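R.M. (postdoc): so does anyone remember the format we settled on? I'll just put the structure tokens first.
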């Protein structure tokens, strides 16, 4: 049984004794238990996010130009190294207009506007 639920049951039981001091302490304990559960949930979410970042970091290949690719990506789609380093976001670089070759050219990040020369 969770701490909050146990305190909730103790509070209901204490109501039968009608002890204001005991009820007050149980209400305080209930509030602390609820805050602790919320904090724990937030820490678990943060931990999961950091785990995903760590796994992705191991998959990243860095290049001389400020772009990255993923080892697991067969197409080797170029992504913005600046956005990854600053915000841990994998933003695909886009070709600048009027370039017809898929293998060579200038690519730019639609978010931070970083420009790179890319050769596949």
């Amino acid at each position: 049984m969770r701490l909050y639920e146990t305190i909730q049951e103790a509070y209901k039981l204490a109501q039968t004794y009608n002890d204001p001091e005991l009820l007050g302490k149980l209400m305080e304990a209930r509030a602390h238990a609820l805050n602790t559960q919320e904090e724990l949930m937030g820490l678990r979410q943060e931990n999961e996010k950091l785990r995903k970042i760590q796994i992705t970091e191991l998959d990243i290949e860095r290049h001389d130009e400020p772009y990255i690719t993923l080892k697991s990506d067969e197409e080797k789609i170029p992504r913005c190294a600046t956005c990854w380093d600053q915000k841990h976001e994998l933003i695909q670089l886009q070709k600048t207009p009027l370039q017809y070759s898929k293998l060579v050219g200038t690519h730019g990040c639609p978010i931070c506007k970083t420009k790179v020369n890319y050769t596949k």
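R.M.: ...and that's the designed sequence above, right after the tokens. Also worth knowing: Residues 20-59 form the longest helix (40 residues). The radius of gyration is 26 Å.
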